[in-house]
Write the C-alpha cells for this entry.
Amino acid sequence: MRIVTIKNPVPLKSPYTIVSTDYSSGISLLVEDSGSFKDNDLILIGGVGNEKSEITDLNGNPTNADSLVISALKHEHSSDESVQAVLWDSFDVDYKTDSTGTWISLITANPFDWSNNDTNYIHPTGVSNYYYRVRYYNSAKGTSSDWSDTMSGTGDTRSTVSSMIGQVRENAKDKTDQKASDELIISYFNFAQDIIKSMNKKWPWLQGEAIINPSNLVLPVDFKRAYRLKYTYINDTQSKTYYLTYLPLPEFEDKYGDNNADGNDVLVNYSVDTINGFIKLGPSPITTTAILTLVYEKDILDLGAYTDVTIIPLPELLIAYATAKVCKLKSNSDDYTSWMSDFSDLLLILDDARPVSYHPRSLKRFVGRGPYAVYNRASEDTE
C-alpha cells in the first residue's frame, strides 16, 4: 500500500467575500459582495482547515451584488464563513511500476479534502518501487494543470521540500497557511542554503562523480568546480585508464587552438568552459568509445518543487531558519529567538564537519617526547 500526498491548491486572494446569511439548502448563496465573481468560477466555502469546507461552481454571472447562483451544497454554512475563488477542485493520479515504464491512470477527478493543507490518496496495491505523478483538474472548465514531477513510491525523506514544509508548519503552528505560503517558506529554505554557500567550504557531502558522454561533453547541472577527470580509452586492442592534466581555459585554447587530434585517441589535457557549460578535451578524441569520469564539487541548487531534495546533510538547518522566520511573521519573538538559536547551533555543527582534502597530506616523522623524569622523593628526604 502506498499513500500519495497531494498538496491542495491555495485559494486565490481575490475575488473574496463572506457568507452574509446562514445557508441551509438551495442554489442561492447570499454574500456580502458578489463583485468580480464570474460564471464557472470555482469557489471554496469555509476556508482551509474546516471539515465542512466544500467547493462548488458558479452557474452564471452574478445578477446582483449580494448573491451567487451555485450548485447545491452538501453542508450548512454559517454567516461570516469565507468565500474564495480556487483554480482547481480535483486531481488525477498516474503511476508506473518502474522508472522506464508506461504511465497508468490510477484515479481521475478525485476531490480534495479541504480539512487540511494536503489530501492523501491511498493506492492499496502500490509498492515502494512504483512511481507517481499528479495534476490538478478544474471540473467546471474541463482544464488540467501540468503533471507534477515524478515521485518515488518510497515516499518523502526528511530532506524533501514537502516534508520540510510540513515540519515548519508543525513547529510554527501555521498548518493552514495563515501567515506563510509554501512559496514563502521555500524562499526561506533557499536563503538558509545561501548562508551555507557563503561559508565556501569543501565539505565531503559536496563531492560528486559523474559519467560524461564523450560525444556530448556537458557539465552536470550542479557543477561548481572540477577536481579531476579520469579517462578510460577502450578499443579492440587497448584499454587504458589515467587522469588528464587540467589546464586553465586560456592556456588550453592556446595549446589546442586548431582542435585537431594528433592521430591517436590518447588524451592529455582537459579544461572547463563554465560559461557554456562544457568540458574541453585535448587533443580532440577521434572516437567516442571511451569512459570519462568527472570528480567535482557540487553547487547547492535552489529548491523549488515539492519533490526537490536539499543536498544539505542537516535539513534541520533549513527547517529551523524557516520556522524562525514564520514565527517572526506571527509576532512571536520568543519562538523566533529560540529557533534562530537552534539554527546558529546547527550551523556550528555543520561548520565543524571535516573538509575534504584533495591533496596528499604531508607526513613528517614523529620524534616524540623524552620520558618523564621519575624522582624517588623518599630517597631525597633521607639524604
